[in-house]
Amino acid sequence: MTGARRLFRFLSRRHPVAALLLALAVAAGLGFGWQVGTATTRLFAPPHAERPIEPWMTPRYVARSWGLPPSFVFSLLPADPHARPHEGPMILSDVLGDGPELERFRHRIEAARAKMEGASQ
After folding, report:
1. How far apart are CA 70 and CA 73, in angstroms?
2. Is 113 helix (H, G, I), strand (E, B) or coil?
3. What is the DSSP string of 1-27?
4. Statement: residue 46 has pLDDT above 70
5. Contact 92, 105 (CB under 8 A)
6. Cβ contacts of residue 48 below 8 Å, gap of 6+?
7. Best CA proximity match to 66, nearest among 119, 121, 115
8. Which of 17, 42, 64, 94 falls 20 to 30 Å from 100 in CA-CA distance?
9. Rounded distance between C-alpha atoms, residue 111 and residue 119, angstroms
10. Terminal Cα distance for the chain, rounded
11. Does 80 score more than 80 pLDDT?
12. What is residue 45's predicted lDDT score, i.e. its pLDDT?
């Protein structure tokens, strides 16, 4: 019998409360370890800003992922930011469609991002 099994058997028979606390501490340690591992992998993942702007994205998602103020992104849209053609969030294809308007919006966002990066350096 291994040492860990003997220790757990001893604790569970003689000290059931201590065994329960030990089991909870091990479970909590594994949970926190999992969170640290997933957070670490997200740190080294490519940023959202490398993802191209697509028609399904919301203006707020574009603002957050590209590091721009939401008011600036909404100012680039030809529609009222509070008007919604359907229930749920407003997506870019509702306002701009999938054609040249979306391309112009994409170029404006890229130019604003480059301008902000140039100003911060």
Report:
1. 5
2. helix
3. --HHHHHHHHHHHH-HHHHHHHHHHHH
4. no
5. yes
6. 64, 65, 66
7. 115
8. 64
9. 12
10. 62
11. no
12. 66
pLDDT at 77: 85
Q: Which two tokens stand for residue 12?
A: 């569970």
Residue 68 φ/ψ, nearest 5 degrees: -115, 155
Exposed/middle/buried for residue 24 (C-beta within 10 Å: 0-12, 13-18, 19+): exposed
Given a contact cutoff of 8 angstroms between Cβ atoms, the answer to whether 106 and 65 are in contact is no
CB atoms inside a 10 Å sphere around CB 72: 14
Report the distance separating Cα 55 and Cα 58, nearest Å.
8
Cβ neighbours of residue 47 closer than 8 Å, sequence gap 6 or more:
65
Q: Rounded distance, CA 117 to CA 29, Å?
A: 40
Mean pLDDT of 81-89: 67
Mean pLDDT of 91-110: 86
